[in-house]
Task: structure prediction
Amino acid sequence: MKAQPTASHFIDGAYVEDAAGDLIEVIYPATGEVIAVLHAATPALIDRALASATRAQADWATWRPVDRARILRRAADLIRDRNPDLARLETLDTGKPLQETLVADWPSGADAIEYFAGLAPTVVGETIPLGRDFVYTLREPLGVCVGIGAWNYPSQIACWKSAPALALGNAMVFKPSEVTPLGALKLAEIYIEAGLPAGLFNVVQGRGPVGAALATDARVAKVSLTGSVPTGRKVYAAAAAGVRHVTMELGGKSPLIVFDDASVEDAVGAAMLGNFYSTGQVCSNGTRVFVQKGIKDRFLASLRARSEKIVLGDPLDEATQMGPLVSAVQLDKVMGYIEGAKAEGARLITGGARGPANDGYFVQPTVFADVTDAMTLAREEVFGPVMAVLDFEDEAEVIARANDTEFGLAAGVFTADLARAHRVVGQLQAGTTWINAYNLTPVEAPFGGVKQSGVGRENGHAAVEHYTQVKSVYVGMGPVDAPY
Ligand code: NAD
Result:
């Protein structure tokens, strides 16, 4: 199986190669097979990407928003037309099953492009009366924005970052994760085909140092990262040195709280979606499932039965519900957490082993019960299909325990008592929350974290704040009253 792109990078409207860059092997996680070999960007290519973005952005900023929007809408249509091929490539790049990539990855990217195309022409300033004089405000683009992606939703991330950036008059240089570098190149091709001027969306490949070189370049106005908390700290600090804008979409250890009046089957379904979708490699996953004691046994019995029916295997078979983890590194990490949880005394309910194919990075959907707050499994982000079930007695206790973490990305509450649902959600320290649902992230809703889970928001009207800046224009309408 091969998925070799035309070249490693896409700069100023064309594919570009520089064989002097470090090798990056792209591996299909279901078999361990190398499907493409790329090169990391050299300093000369990073410079070309930023130079062409700077040049292109100066003109793009002068376009009417409706004219920009027309191009983006065309790009969204092209993505939808090509979704089957794009989904297959996403499956090869990530190992996620076609059953998911056909409906979740590029489709949600197309939604974002369409949404921000529609929103951009409505973004206006305000007029502030001051008696004789007045102030009006302009919402201006930031300039050249850098996007740095994680490997779990590579194409969705490229779309979620580039859509508001481009719609609002910025350029973007995007560095995909070195683990999943293929989708962003297709997005660059599609934007050009839709009519986007060359240079406005450039893709450069590379590991951390390429991201760091982008984040510290004087031409860059903003850095938007999706990644882990440790990387976020580094990138945020690097951006701060140049007083650059940032959006940080980082990790989590989110609580999903199930009260004893909830529909147990709905809560079980949500807990499974919030731990097993994308083989558990979702930042907002509800990986600490707090279940009120009265329903614990029923909850665990149903969870076990339903988890054991999950179809794990060949991601290219549309009947497959769960694929492998993204890499051998991630497999080792997840197996380490599973062994650690057993050693720390958590009770294994189901899963806990590798499978089904030894040459792929597969792990069974795994559930541990009797997890306590102090266990590593309850404190650290696993990023794999490993659910921790914890017990609780009452509302005040569970809120305090849910908030007792450095993370604050997401949280969920299941209960039939809606007053309680709103009361609890109001006290949970998280940027994105759900009531009687989990992990739904439509483009219309702002998404992001509090505490160590991030800064800024993607999607929704909120993203406009993060890809524009306000200029105040004071207009003097009479003589200048100088005391000199
Ligand atoms: P990671 O932090 O290892 O890497 C993220 C990106 O940062 C990669 O492209 C990497 O090359 C780059 N990078 C690494 N060091 C850098 C540096 N010093 N300067 C600039 N760039 C650097 O994350 P990952 O393993 O690819 O992804 C998994 C993590 O991402 C998890 O923690 C997950 O929770 C998080 N995530 C968050 C969201 C969100 O929206 N909040 C979404 C998806 C994933």
About this structure: The first strand starts at residue 9 and ends at 11. The chain has a mean pLDDT of 98.
